[in-house]
Amino acid sequence: MTYEQLLYTVDGPLATITLNRPKRMNALTKVLEAELRTAIEQAGRDVAVRAIVLTGVGRAFCAGMDMEELEVLPPEDIQAEQWMRPYDMNRRADYQTRYSYFPAASKPIISAINGAAAGLGLVMALYSDFRIASEKAVFATAFAKRGLIAEHGIAWMLPRIVGHTHATDLLLTSRKIDAQEALGMGLVNRVVPADELMATVQALAHSLSTEVSPRSVGVMKRQLWEAPYQSLGEAITLANAEMVESLRSEDFAEGVAHFVERRPAQFSGR
Known about the structure:
Blueprint (H helix, E strand, L loop, with lengths): L5 E6 L2 E6 L10 H16 L5 E6 L3 E3 L4 H5 L37 E5 L2 E3 L1 H7 L3 E5 L3 E3 L13 H9 L1 H10 L3 E2 H6 L5 E3 L4 H14 L3 H13 L5 H16 L2 H12 L9
Parallel strand pairs: 2-3, 3-5, 4-6, 5-7, 6-8, 7-10
Antiparallel strand pairs: 1-2, 8-9
Helix pairs in contact: 4-5, 8-9
């Protein structure tokens, strides 16, 4: 697969997707948006890939929608069929929309936030499973300053991550916050020096790829993202059913064997 506005590389079990419009602070275009979904789907289909890293070239992670495209964007484009196609028919309809398909990917997605994450850039980070930020990263919702609203489910996502009070602040004021403030409110998992960002993210991805069962990771990711829609009883019922399948899996047998034999795990994902 050849991409025009992003870079896609695979190194062992790690797929790295790098937004590649540095002169425009990796702002989204229709081309880049379509390529991003294709790249995540490509990584999802690759049986050798066990973790996905999303980052940007240059000084920004993603500065949102490209203003030149936003100015001429037809209002109805936001609901265009090309953006709303199902990612996985076995997943909730909630995770089949324009950006919410990130949670439908069975593999963990790590956002390596190297710089500005604003508007849709912040939305993508929120839909990721991990957010590791450079000390140079800055964050802003930006929507209110553009005369827009809390789009693509961010009004649902943001309070669940940072709480209602912080979400109200960030959405209504559109103010910028730095990496340390983002860490303090729980918006990111970790803040590291800029020159250590990719090494830190790759170490996390390597751990997810080699030290834990990819089958377990995929199931637990699904449990975590579906839990907000479930009662406690429903969550327990699902967990009980999944536990039966886990106990029958190759990865469970390997999980016991490598512990007893005191050797590195060799999980198959089955």
